[in-house]
Amino acid sequence: MRNSLPDGSVEFVIPSDLNEARMVQEVIENHLRQNQYEDKEIFGIRLALEEAIVNAIKHGNQMDNAKKVHVFFRVDPDRFDVGVTDEGPGYDPEDVPDPLADENLERPSGRGLLLMRHYMTEVTIHPPGNRLTMSKVRIESTGTNGDGH
Which DSSP string do the residues of 76-125 spell out, in sequence order? Predict the structure, then answer.
């Protein structure tokens, strides 16, 4: 189910199905392209988005097709916002092992959060841990990398 909201955002409610997740990603990518986002930005956003939705389907909803994933997004020329909510019990992000710690380098868990935090400007996991919001704020081309350098 897809709804366009009065503020310009779009909401999807999908079953816990990885094919549905890909369809949502494609719609969002089209909106990003319409707003002149660069390929590099789209790559990072798409990767972070895929991690968020796949985590919601696999870990949150336990691949239960009866459970839904809610995805809302808004694309503006200077900012992209997205939220992903699953119907699972949630989790504490502090309990996710650091994937860069020596003892975890070969373990797959935690990499999704690391990627989301790398590619997005803001990542917030809302208690009880079954809702995530992310933003990508575009920096004007001023010859700096966004931190004054």
Answer: ETTEEEEEEE-SS----GGGS--TTSGGGTT--TTHHHHHHHHHSSEEEE
| Residue 43 to residues 46, 48, 76, 84, Cα–Cα distance (Å) | 5, 9, 17, 18
Average pLDDT, the chain: 88
Single-letter residue type at 116: M
The Cα 116–Cα 45 span in angstroms is: 8
Range 86-113 average pLDDT: 73
* Number of neighbours of residue 22 by Cβ within 10 angstroms: 13
pLDDT at position 111 is: 72
Q: Which of 41, 58, 4 is nearest to 135 (CA)?
A: 41
Query: What is the DSSP secondary-structure string of 51-82?
Result: HHHHHIIIIISTT-TTSEEEEEEEEETTEEEE
Distance in angstroms (rounded) separating the CA atoms of residues 15 and 145: 39
pTM for this one? 0.85
pLDDT in tens, 31-62: 999 999 999 999 999 999 999 999 999 999 99
